[in-house]
Write a structure and sequence with these properties.
Elements: H1 13-27, H2 29-38, H3 67-71, H4 113-134, E1 142-156, E2 162-175, E3 180-193, E4 200-213, E5 219-220, E6 223-235, E7 238-240, E8 252-265, E9 275-286, E10 288-289, E11 297-308
Antiparallel strand pairs: 1-2, 1-11, 2-3, 3-4, 4-6, 4-7, 5-6, 6-8, 8-9, 8-10, 9-11
Amino acid sequence: MPIWPRIGPHTSLASALGLALLLAPSVRAAPVATEAQAAPGATSPATAVDPTAAPAAASPAAPAASPVAASTPAEPPTPEPIAPSAIMAPSSSDSTTGSIAPTNSPDREPIDPIDAEESEEDAERAALFFHSLYRPDDNPGRFNAVFRTSYTILGSNDHHLSGRFFGLSADIGQSWNTMGYALSLHANLGSLDLRDDGKVKAVALLGAGPTVNLGRLALLQRGFLDLRVGYDFYYAPGRSTDPDIVATSLMPHGPRLQLNMGLMVSPKRQRRFFHGVGATVGYQALVGAFSGDLPFTSVLSFGLSHWMG
């Protein structure tokens, strides 16, 4: 029996419209239910169900998504731990003073105590090697000589005497491990004013004298430091520029202190004579003269030296 009521000729138009409005929701129920099944995750205010349709069997393989799970936001990813070395150290500068505090750089390796001990052992071995090379236990006496070329300045305290010389000198003698002796020879050419008016001059200063030194103790591995003390006797021939003035010669004398220093040539090789080159500085005081009038005079010299022994 159909659900639509029969409309006869005696039915009014108003009654027919009322019945159509009452039956309209039931006709639209089937499409709404289909849309709800097509989109199970969508939400709607109300879902109409057809009373004549059979209930659909639940599929165990594809369960319906839970509205609570769908509305729950995804958890953020867990950050990876940061290594301590990747964290930047704070600035080492002091904001108040502007100074930079010392920081231990990760690139700088600490000093290994084993390496420090090895360096100390190497220094000790080098010291023993050079000691046995320069100063053997049998302490032989060897020929020793020092040659110098120097520029010399002379001057007296009362400004009565002044002069400059260029010269050569040599110490020739013998040396042992801790001492030595030599005979010093000097030859200087220049000009030495013997009078205030400059009419009498000495053009040469020749001399000789004994000298004592440190011997081979002056050799210091790759260098030398030789201190020498001597006493010299000189002869300075005078020359007069005025024919009316008779020039007299001088024979001054005085103690001398000489320091020779420099580097050794091929110090690690055993050889008959060791050689070194360097500089020399000397001071001498002429305290008197055997002939002529000579005030106290200071002599300063400096130049180059060659050590052999």
